[in-house]
Amino acid sequence: MATIEKRELSGGVASYRARVRIKGHPQQIATFERLTDAKRWVQQTEAAIREGRYFKTSQARKFTFSDALERYRTEILIYEKASNKNLANYLAYWEKELGAYAMADITPALIVSARNKLLGSKGKFGRERSPTTANRYVSALSHVFTVAINDWEWLEIHPVRKISKLKQPRGRVRFLSDDERERLLEACKDTDNPHLYNIVVLALSTGARKMEVVGLRWKDIDLERGTIILHETKNGERRVIPITGYARALMQAQHEKRDKKCDYVFPSKAKCQPIDIRTAWENALTKAGIDDFRFHDLRHSAASYLAMNGATLAEIAEVLGHKTLQMVKRYAHLSEAHTHKVVASMNEKIFGEAK
Asked: Distance between CA atoms of 176 and 171, rounded to whole angstroms?
């Protein structure tokens, strides 16, 4: 709703105060000397607000999205250590698509168009980007706008919040069969990468993520107690995970032959930094004849093995470091045998053995 109020000033001079009120948006007020200017402003402001293009501050016109990203990288991204690489890749895409636009000109429709281009496109390793991946790209973009609005006061309206998330498929549950696991471990042994085998065993044994395993330091491993402390995790909280049996023995052997000048458990040959296993991993999968399998699926494999060996969903969530049970419900069907035994035991105690 818009109104224009005529005001009589001293000396018989008139002015026109225009107001624009639209539900869900702050009231906008401006004063003009001519009625025609007031009417034009009302029409333009109403249209811009309804289309998500109106920003009271001039900063929205002054700065481009590339300007926002440059500041975001130096003030925010530098501290996002756990997922820095993924975020950097996501934001690089948005800079390519939106970088030249003024912040005020980035609309929900423009974002949706760029997001939809991701669907079906292929990533670095030739895999098609899914709705889940596209949603992650949008989530990264959303935080840039959140900071620009709340911290920098460059904008008033958040264009990403008007966008609906793409419907995502049910959580993937791809785990190694016994035969696949044996073939994969054998292929990991037969590789030029000196750490691939131990890394895969540790991932299968603990359910830890790739970067959590590859980035391990000896100071975070207590071999006597059989524990690993993960300081940099996806949810930002420290997590303690146990290492037992074969994985623990491998870590003890690894410790005995470690490079004392480098604290990384799995260091690169050339520098004191985590080793790159991408090529060796892909080659091992090919040699083992295993299709449709990613390194992250080792985490799903660990969770599936836990479920099939009687672990509850709460126990699986604790091992994997999930704050809620929602993420581990995908493994519920694998623990049906255990659930059946629990119910049978309860019934036997209450009603006695069946006759």
From this structure: 16
Handedness of CA 327, 333, 335, 341 (dihedral sign): positive
CA 321 – CA 240 distance, rounded (Å): 9
C-alpha angle 9-15-17 in degrees, rounded to nearest 5: 120
What residues does each domain of the chain span? 2-50, 60-162, 178-342
Task: Render pLDDT for 7-60 as a digit per residue (tens, 0 to 9).
Answer: 887 777 888 888 988 887 778 888 888 889 889 988 888 887 777 666 656 667
Say which DSSP state 326 is in.
Answer: G
Phi then psi dihedrals of residue 196, to 5 deg: -60, -45
* Backbone CA torsion sign across 278, 279, 284, 289: positive
d(CA 86, CA 101): 23
Higher-pLDDT residue of 325, 128? 128
Helical H segments across the chain, by residue range: 35-50, 59-62, 65-75, 84-98, 108-118, 131-150, 178-189, 196-206, 210-214, 245-256, 278-288, 297-308, 313-320, 336-351
Burial of 93 (0-12, 13-18, 19+ CB in 10 A): middle
- Topology of 60-162 in CATH? DNA polymerase; domain 1 (1.10.150)
Given the candidates 1.10.443.10, 3.20.10.10, 3.40.50.150, 2.60.60.30, the CATH classification of the domain at 178-342 is: 1.10.443.10
Comparing C-alpha atoms, which of 324, 310, 296, 331 is closest to residue 207?
Answer: 296
CA distance 295 to 190: 18
